[in-house]
Amino acid sequence: MGPIPLCVLLPVTVLAVVVAAVTTEENAVSDEYTWPQWKVPTVRKRRMVHLNSPTFSAHPQSELAGICGIECQRHLPSPSLDKLEQFLSYETFYENGTRTYTSVSVQGLSEVTAWSRNTSSSSRHKREVYGTDTRFTISDKQFSTKYPFSTTVKISTGCSGVLVSPKHILTAAHCIHDGKDYLDGVQKLRVGILKDKSKKGKGNKGRGGRRKGKRRKGDKGKEEVQEKEENGGKGDHKRKGKGQKNRSRRSAESEKPSFKWTKVKQTQVPKGWFKGVSGGLAADYDYAILELKKAPKVKHMDLGVIPSVKKLPARRIHFSGFDDDRPGHLVYRFCSVSNESSDLLYQYCDAKPGSSGSGVYIRLKEPGKKKWKRKIIGVFSGHQWVDVNGDGMQQDYNVAVRITPLKYAQICYWVHGDSSECQVA
Q: Where does it mainly reside (predicted)?
């Protein structure tokens, strides 16, 4: 075979380069939709001391004020290792009324990638629902008692939470502690799990009364609701009017869900939440873990860590909670995150008091697999007044506390009691 003419070789070479570029771009896009693997720091117990019993004199707060916001945080110096260890040290309250303080040490902090800081901001008037209310009431127990909605729980102090292990609930710290003392009612704290009454029905065959191999009438509707949750509402316009009518009818006609209440064995709150310790950074640590006395037979949702919301599909987050204006019903919503700081997510998700403590989650692919998986990336804190520019002028946002590698390490240590279980997020 003779030499290939240059006029033929050149187009082939160009085509190969284009194909390689497209393949690289596709792989990059695919990577953006995959859960990143993080090597997280190690949090270890240093010393534990006993404290006096709390007085339970605090009362729930509808909103927080004076929080250091996006621009404000840009001018703050990075906290030293000593400060971080102080913020991550924690208080444990036990069901018998006693409490302890545990100081911690942090190792491997230098291996954690720095978080990006978004410098954009916008002013808004105080609102909790922005324009058209985009929340969905999941009133049908066929949906509310199935994953992922079933991971959402109700806290007896009036908040929501999310199941992150067989017996651990992640919620907002302000749902049990106001920064100075525990709320009245925490001494008898309970967690409500939505239960499906059909499991107790007469003549049920096996778990949930479902015969093997047969499909229930509600399965098609269940799949549609889960598809809406997974796609963030995409495709709604195809069933406009009819879908909304059916959803309204289900809300009015379906039976109100009931709860199975479980006592809390102990609670753990980071020292960074306590006012006077971290000043304006209190909101960064608005999270807590509740350990249940008995594990419910409900699938939990794992924790996840993402470097920035900019890499999320449409920057979209999801969460469900028990909003006060819809008593007894589970309320689901999704929205796009507008701004972010190293520790907080600022968004326009419609919400009312009662949804605080809800687990904020997203869906990404598991590394090396085609399977998509939901993970908790934050805790919805609620409506808060934020010092955006550091000049004392405050604006209001709906804010969520993001799970950072450090917070992941701490929460994972609380859940497992062994830092060796928490090496990679």
A: secreted
The helix (H) or strand (E) run that includes residue 220 is helix 219-231
Query: Which residue range(s) make up the domain with 232?
Result: 42-193+221-421
Residue type for position 313: P
Is the predicted pLDDT of residue 242 greater than 50, yes or no?
A: no
Which two structure tokens, joined as six digits, stand for 377? 């990336």
Whether residue 372 is contained in a domain is answered as: yes
CA–CA separation, 317 and 379 (whole Å): 11
Side chain identity, residue 239: R
Decide: 237 and 163 in contact? Cβ < 8 Å: no
Report d(CA 252, CA 137) in Å as an integer.
Answer: 10
Query: What average pLDDT does the segment 171-192 reach?
Result: 94
Q: Please, where are the H alpha helices in 232-297?
A: 242-253
Which residue in the block uniquely carries the two structure tokens 């621009």?
A: 71
Backbone φ and ψ of 364, nearest 5°? -135, 165
CATH number of the domain to which 150 belongs: 2.40.10.10
pLDDT tens figures, 34-57: 898 888 899 999 999 999 999 999
Q: Which position has the token pair 């249940």? A: 292
DSSP per-residue codes, 132-171? S---EEE--HHHHTSTTGGGEEEETTS-EEEEEETTEEEE
pLDDT tens digits for 220-238?
444 444 545 545 444 444 4
DSSP string, 392-410: S-EEEEEEEEE--HHHHHH
Pick the closest to residue 376 from 400, 353, 341 (CA basis): 400
Q: Is residue 333 part of a domain?
A: yes
What's the N-to-C CA distance of the chain in angstroms?
56
- Would 216 be classed as within a structural domain? no
The count of domains in the chain is 1
199 lies in a domain? no
Tell me what the pLDDT averaged over the chain comes to.
76
